[in-house]
Amino acid sequence: MPGIIRFAPSPTGFLHEGHLLSALYVWAAAKKWDLKIHLRIEDHDQGRARKEYIDGIREDLAWLGFKYDSESIQSSHFNFFQNVLDKLTAKGFVYPCTCSRKQLQSENPISETGEVIYQGKCRTQTAPCSEPHSLRIVIPDKVINWHDERLGDFSENPKKQCGDFPIRDRDGFWTYQFAVCIDDLTEGITHIVRGEDIRNSTARQIALSQLISDTCQGDLPIPAYTRPLYLHHPLIVDSSGKKLSKREHAYSLRQDKDAGKTAQEILGQILYKAGFLGNNTPIALDQAIAIVAESL
């Protein structure tokens, strides 16, 4: 059977240039490795997800010419996420955390990248159900060795990187780490191509995926864990060196479209900014995908 790769945007805004570059890498990887392409709408952030953005993702991909083999929307899996949580909780792998953001920052070490390294303050405490709290997963103190097809080999210990991390936040929303691990497992994802900004999540996702698989097999329709192939691609950054994101008000692709640019002009613009083309010239989607595939 062919492998499966996924393109997984969050519907908290319209697609921007960073999304388009990531899509080009995903479709290029599918071309190179003969993979099926799955579109996953990652709407785990129910506080910011909007139907207009979900519709916009589909519309923009179609306008640009991207075709995919299957589609899912994360919120349709939320009941299943609860079933997984129940199994993990019953086995003692989940605990409530009532630490405030201020406490997290002041009472725990901070990594070089600014991430809190949680020391497990609430692991042995009982939090009142009436109080808002996040739920954290107990992860093993273990080095994860993994390989990136572009960046090489990594040895990382999630316990030292971030400590026990949340799988449900204080507002009751599933976290990205928890949702993506379950969906990658159940949707049979064999290849993960995504931006370098997510690279430091890899070891913790490997650890969590293995834990979910080992805990839930036989009780829930979750397969034995097989580690995907990983490739983290470079990002397009703004003039200050920050990655493009909806939170930083990145210019959306439909703004270019509404301004009269063609899909070919936008594709050429992205390849030029990403260093694939020496000048900003229109290009067809199949040519753009082929150029990126040659770099993999």
Helices and strands, in order, run as: EHEHEHEHEEEHEHEHEHHH
Structural class: alpha/beta
CATH-defined architecture:
3-Layer(aba) Sandwich
Radius of gyration: 20 Å
Helical proportion?
Answer: 25-40%
Using the coordinates above, name the CATH class.
Answer: Alpha Beta
The CATH superfamily bears the name HUPs
Number of strands: 10
Approximate strand percentage? 15-25%
Overview of this protein structure:
By secondary structure, the chain is α/β, with parallel strands linked by helices. It has a single domain (4-294), classed as HUPs (Rossmann fold, 3-Layer(aba) Sandwich). It is built from ten helices and ten strands. It has helices at 17-33, 51-64, 78-90, 101-107, 158-161, 176-186, 202-216, 253-258, 263-273, 285-294; strands at residues 4-7, 36-41, 70-73, 94-97, 134-137, 144-148, 152-156, 166-168, 191-195, 229-233. The strands form four sheets. A three-stranded parallel beta sheet has the order 1-2-3, covered by helices on one side. A three-stranded antiparallel beta sheet has the order 4-5-8. A two-stranded antiparallel ribbon has the order 6-7. Strand 2 (36-41), helix 2 (51-64) and strand 3 (70-73) form a beta-alpha-beta unit. Helix 1 (17-33) packs across helix 10 (285-294). The longest helix has 17 residues, at 17-33. It is globular and about 60 Å long. The mean pLDDT is 92.
